[in-house]
């Protein structure tokens, strides 16, 4: 069995490359990674250390060049499974099918971004040639099948993401005199970080709480402006992408994830592994991960007052924080560990070959 993974980049700060890397580490087979972005080539060594052959081909959207490269790889490496995700990756997966109609193409849906009319037309055609669909949550499955009814007729599986605990050395810049809140994710609309800024504007008066946001993206400047506008510079730190995420996860008091259209939320299960008290929104796949008032809190995605109230209550009740965090740790080990994730994929690969 020879598997070709098509990735948007090698950015292991992002959920898809990170979980693919961890999956590759568990596979006892020939694995090849093809990426069409060289921005994060510094992570090449991690994929190679995991045993993958990596091809970084930043041909932009030049379909012909990608076709030529993929054809050489598929023939030379005797590829029989191609796994891909995201619109351009799905197009490249279709090219692979045209190169060798006998190979099996797996599309993994990790989010619910709605395509424009042209992309929808193209994807409806491409999905006719996909052999297997993987959804990372029931939420993603229902949304994608609503967008593309053709998917209802395709073999599919729901495979929740799995991961391993983040390494940590307790080296971080969290303020030692504050109750530390942490959020991780790309700075885009669906992550809903505006709610956390509004929450901190409510909490700022007693100077007890500090919020750290790890991540980067197109909303960065807008968020910085809003933080300054509300005089929250001393209450909120934005770190961008950092290498020692585990240090912050291990040391924070509460992990917050307010996204309103999350396909899965791998940083949530990382927080569960770190035995953190967790608050998530009531949208997307998050209620599939967290059990309300058992392994965390599930709150409205658009009510910063509710979030501020619950943060205050949890700050005052350490016993509840400990109970929630312990339950979260037990849940993640039962449902979202790397072995379960890997075994589900191995089983599927065996079924489609």
> Overall pLDDT, averaged?
93
Q: Write the H/E string, N to C.
A: EHEHEHEHEHEHEEHEHEHEHEHEHHH
Provide the gyration radius in Å: 21 Å
Q: List low-pLDDT spans.
A: none
What is the tally of beta strands? 13
Distance between the termini: 8 Å
Q: Biggest β-sheet: count, sense, barrel? A: 7 strands, parallel
Could you say which overall geometry the principal axes of the C-alpha atoms support?
Answer: elongated
Provide the structure class: alpha/beta
How many helices in DSSP terms? 14
Please estimate the helix content. Answer: 40-55%
Strand content: 15-25%
Q: Biggest sheet, strands in spatial order? A: 3-2-1-4-5-6-7
Summary tags:
13 strands; alpha/beta; elongated; 353 residues; six-stranded parallel beta sheet; 18% strand; 43% helix
Notes on the structure:
The chain contains 14 helices and 13 strands. It has helices at 15-26, 44-49, 63-77, 87-99, 117-126, 138-147, 193-203, 220-229, 245-251, 266-273, 286-289, 304-316, 318-335, 338-352; strands at 2-7, 30-35, 53-56, 81-84, 104-109, 132-135, 156-158, 179-184, 209-214, 236-240, 254-257, 277-281, 297-299. The longest helix is centred in the C-terminal third of the chain and has 18 residues, at 318-335. Helix 2 links the parallel strand 2 (30-35) and strand 3 (53-56). The model has no long low-confidence stretch (mean pLDDT 93). The chain has a seven-stranded parallel β-sheet with strand order 3-2-1-4-5-6-7, with helices on both faces. It has 353 residues and is of the alpha/beta class. Helix 3 crosses helix 4 and helix 7 packs across helix 12. It starts with a strand and ends with a helix.
């Amino acid at each position: 069995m020879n598997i070709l993974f098509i990735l948007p980049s090698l950015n292991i700060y992002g959920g898809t490359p990170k979980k693919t890397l961890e999956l590759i580490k568990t596979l006892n087979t020939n694995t090849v990674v093809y990426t069409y972005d060289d921005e994060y080539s510094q992570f090449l060594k991690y994929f190679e250390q995991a045993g993958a052959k990596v091809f970084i081909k930043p041909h932009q959207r030049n379909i012909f060049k990608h076709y030529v490269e993929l054809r050489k790889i598929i023939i030379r490496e005797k590829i029989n499974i191609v796994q891909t995700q995201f619109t351009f990756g799905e197009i490249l997966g279709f090219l692979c099918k045209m190169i060798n109609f006998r190979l099996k193409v797996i599309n993994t849906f990790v989010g619910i971004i709605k395509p424009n009319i042209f992309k929808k037309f193209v994807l409806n055609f491409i999905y006719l040639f996909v052999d297997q669909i993987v959804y990372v949550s029931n939420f993603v499955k229902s949304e994608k099948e609503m967008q593309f009814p053709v998917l209802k007729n395709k073999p599919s599986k729901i495979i929740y993401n799995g991961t391993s605990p983040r390494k940590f050395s307790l080296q971080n810049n969290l303020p030692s005199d504050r109750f530390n809140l942490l959020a991780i994710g790309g700075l885009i609309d669906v992550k809903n970080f505006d709610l956390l800024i509004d929450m901190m504007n409510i909490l700022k008066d007693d100077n007890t709480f500090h919020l750290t946001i790890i991540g980067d993206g197109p909303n960065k400047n807008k968020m910085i402006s809003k933080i300054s506008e509300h005089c929250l510079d001393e209450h909120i730190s934005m770190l961008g992408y950092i290498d020692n995420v585990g240090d912050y996860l291990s040391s924070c008091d509460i992990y917050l994830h307010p996204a309103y259209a999350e396909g899965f939320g791998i940083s949530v299960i990382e927080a569960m592994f770190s035995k953190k008290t967790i608050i998530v929104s009531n949208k997307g796949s998050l209620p599939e991960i967290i059990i309300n008032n058992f392994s965390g809190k599930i709150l409205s995605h658009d009510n910063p007052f509710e979030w501020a109230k619950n943060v205050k209550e949890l700050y005052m009740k350490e016993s509840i924080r400990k109970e929630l965090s312990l339950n979260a740790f037990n849940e993640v080990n039962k449902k979202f560990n790397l072995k379960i994730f890997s075994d589900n994929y191995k089983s599927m690969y065996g079924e489609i070959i």
